Amino acid sequence: MPESTRITSNRNISLKEVWQRRELIRLFAWRDIKARHKQSVLGMGWAIIYPVLMMIAFSLFFGLLVKVEHGDVPYPVFVYTALLPWLLFSEGISRMGTSLISDISLIQKIYYPRIISPLASVITPLLDCGISFLILLSIAAYFGYYPSVTLLGLLFLLPLSLLLITGIGLWIAALNAEYRDMRYLLPFLTQLWVYASPVIYPSSMIPARFLFAYGILSPMAGIIEGFRWAVLGNPFPSTLLISTCIATFLFFVTGLYYFNKKERVFADVL
Amino acid sequence: MIAIKAEGLSKWYRLGEQGMLTKRVMNAFRKQVGFWALDNVSFELEQGQALGIIGANGSGKSTLLKVLSRITAPTKGSATINGKITSMLEVGTGFHSELTGRENIMLNGVILGMRESEVKRKMDEIIDFSGIEKFIDTPVKRYSSGMYVRLAFAVAAHLDPEILLIDEVLSVGDAAFQQKSLQKMGESTQQGKTLLFVSHNMSAIRNLCQYVILLEKGKIAKFGLSAEVIGSYMKEPTGGLFPKWIALNEKLDERGTTVEMESIELVTSKDTAEVELSCPFIIRMTYKAKGYAPLSLILCDQTGEVIFNSLNNKEPNWYGKQLTEGKYISECTIPGNLLTEGIYSIFIYICIRGWTDGVTTKHLYFRAIDDGVLRGDCYVAYSGIMRPALQWITRKAEEC
């Protein structure tokens, strides 16, 4: 029996089809990485340098000058541990958000499950995150923090953050296809969220009764504090993580729904 | 087995920009302005057949292809496609300028639906077909457009779909390479593959496709054998068929030739632009001339392709002699039982002695009608662009 395709006015994303075309995800990611490093001198080096530079800048301003109250952990490790999931998040949503627009010439000329574009665009930040993780382990070791069994918590935190990124990223990608206003909104959103998340300060600064709501509005908070728990042995952020799970669920389900609804007209509205 | 079945496919496009918030709010209160790019299109295509889609610009050809290839969803209606489908709406979809030729073969191949392992297996064959081995590890941004097209076509030619949708891509690239690609596509339909081909190139359509759909304003205006549909599409080439063409400013005054064409006329028993297949007919040229007047009559089929030309250098009275100034009439008789049904056009090439440096007149269009004289007991369609009456003789081999 040959494969049969139905074409109707209300098609839906087919998981089976995405799975069949999974090679495309890898190839798109491979294309992004290859193309990204083609005309840069430092190439892959930027994956290491960028978060380290941010760590140094934050340590100078908020660790030395402003002297943010952050507990016993030395500020550079404190902030670098948070930068890892944060950069994965901010890079992830902005790459996902612009993925359809950068693949516009493809989308208008050939069919593939459109969701492959955003899914593939998260691979690069994920690899960057992996490289930074090795740097983190060495920085942490330098300050006397060695990996413990809590490190296994990342096996839960990382997939959770990917789901959250995908949920928000799909929203932005689908909105961006139709409303280019997102181009202005997106940098603002990431700017806002970096200060609304416990990157440069600990979440313990937030009054306990607001903690749950804070975690919903700033859904990376749970994951960031989770990283500090897993890598540095800080207290387990149970309230925040519950918020994160709820927010992730909401973003993911609605994001997928909206993307699915818009998928069939991307070629017309882009 | 049915490969493609379209049922009432329709596609609505909104006209005008959506624009900013204020405009959007205002639009919400207004009636939506738009048009049906596709309007209730239904057809069936059997596996192994090749279907051409023709029509004027904006008639919905590309929209139909976009809907069938799932680039965009129809507004109404549905279609079923049985078999692995690949579409080519442009050459080199997904090529990345920073990547090398080899890398782009991989990327493009997988985008077009091949497996990575399949592309790897066919890599050498593809590079070989493209004929640009030397540059295969250079980024494609350094390629000439010709090389780019060759590479893209080499990938496309090695796809192995059961159903192939192609849009006008053959209009690029050099003639020899086009031929090679057309051949490769022709082969694929012989191997039981189904082809849907959109083009303005009527001779490519006729060579590749048995059936043709003519689209007009999003609707199927005609669906049938390619020769018939192409014929009716080419019916009104310059707003109608004329038995007589009044020439305007079609003259040559150079090196011994002075000819000013006044009219070109189709002379038949009726006074219309129609000739019956079995009847000879005359093309009459009226012109003012002085000196020499080498004339060539060129007959084209409905797609504008030249079928033959005929020179007046065997004309017994005046050819090769100096014409004294005045008006002349030349007549060229085209025998019956030579052409087949359809639209033909004729134009005249006026040139200097030696048959160079000439000018051409506009085309005179006429229709050849089957009067059935040559048919005998055959009631099915004839193929080809001519239907000459040729002599047939059969003998039993042992007796001679």
What this model shows, in words?
The complex is a heterodimer of chains A (270) and B (400). By secondary structure, chain A is mainly α. Chain A has one domain (15-33, 42-269). Chain A contains 13 helices and 1 strand; from the N terminus they run βααααααααααααα. In chain A, helix 4 packs across helix 11 and helix 11 (220-232) crosses helix 12 (238-263). The longest helix of chain A is centred in the N-terminal third of the chain and has 28 residues, at 75-102. The mean pLDDT of chain A is 91. Chain B has 400 residues and is an alpha+beta fold. Chain B has a domain at 244-369: Coagulation Factor XIII, Chain A, domain 1, CATH 2.70.50. Chain B has helices spanning 21-29, 61-68, 101-111, 116-130, 145-157, 175-190, 202-208, 226-233; strands at 2-14, 34-46, 50-55, 76-82, 85-88, 163-167, 194-198, 211-216, 219-225, 244-246, 251-254, 257-267, 274-276, 281-291, 295-300, 306-311, 323-334, 342-352, 356-360, 364-369. In chain B, a hairpin with a 5-residue loop joins strand 15 (295-300) and strand 16. The longest helix of chain B has 16 residues, at 175-190. Chain A binds chain B through residues 2-11, 23-24, 27, 31, 34-35, 38-39, 105-112, 264-265, 267-268, and chain B through 9, 13, 66-85, 87, 89-90, 93-94, 96, 98-99, 103, 106-107, 110-112, 115-116, 139, 162.
Number of β-strand runs of chain B: 20
Gap from first CA to last CA of chain A? 36 Å
Q: Give the proportion of residues in helices of chain A.
A: over 70%
Biggest pleated sheet of chain A:
none
Task: Report the uncertain regions of chain B.
Answer: none
Give the overall shape of chain A: globular
CATH-assigned fold name of the domain at 244-369 in chain B: Coagulation Factor XIII, Chain A, domain 1
- CA gyration radius of chain A, whole angstroms: 20 Å
Order of helices and strands of chain B: EHEEHEEHHHEHEHEEHEEEEEEEEEEE
Q: Helix/strand/pairing class of chain A, anyone?
A: mainly alpha
